[in-house]
Specification:
Distance between the termini: 47 Å
Largest sheet: 6 strands, mixed
Number of helices: 4
Order of helices and strands: EEEHEHEHEHEEEE
Number of strands: 10
Oligomer: single chain
Strand order of the largest sheet: 4-1-5-6-7-8
Shape: globular
Structural class: alpha/beta
Radius of gyration: 15 Å
């Protein structure tokens, strides 16, 4: 029987954990993450453990949130980590972690979605989570951003709001 490995998922909020609020006429982040319930529906070769850091729009993350995330990463026993995160400042957080994380033995993948995981179809959330699981299992130690079926290093990634996807600043656009 194949031995299961462990993935820690740190939850910070973002669109992936949002729901539609008809009164506000917009998607808002819920009080409880929907990501753990989603994972209960999957049959994985990994054991998954969740840690809620915060549930915020990434534009509202502050230095206390980022330092809390950094502390939790430093003290985590595991080396395979996924962070769910809002897409607006995901590259900034990836760069912050790359610059400040003392540990160099972890594979840290940030992912999220442009459309909430629950209550919307189609949503890119489940695809991005699955891709992040595959990548955290195969990448070398470091900090990465996995979105839209592509893996980026923090130094290269930017978000294209008009296209709703990330791209490498080093690749020439067609």
């Amino acid at each position: 029987m194949e031995k299961k490995f462990k993935i820690n998922i740190f939850l910070t909020g973002g669109t992936i954990d949002s729901h539609w609020d008809g009164k506000a006429d917009t998607a808002v982040i819920g009080d409880v993450s929907v990501v753990p319930d989603y994972f209960k529906t999957l049959i994985l070769y990994a054991d998954v453990e969740f840690t809620e850091i915060c549930l915020k729009d990434s534009r509202n993350l502050n230095s206390a949130d980022l330092n809390n995330l950094l502390e939790k990463l430093e003290s985590c026993d595991n080396t395979k980590i996924i962070i769910t995160h809002g897409t607006y400042t995901m590259p900034d957080t990836a760069k912050f972690l790359q610059a400040n994380l003392k540990r160099k033995d972890q594979i840290i993948v940030l992912t999220g979605s442009m459309v909430p995981l629950a209550g919307f179809s189609p949503s890119d959330a489940s695809f991005n989570l699955g891709y992040a699981i595959a990548e955290v299992s195969n990448l070398a130690a470091g900090v990465y951003l996995c979105m839209n079926g592509k893996t980026f290093n923090p130094d290269e990634v930017a978000k294209n709001l008009a296209e709703g996807k990330f791209y490498s600043v080093f690749e020439r656009k067609q």
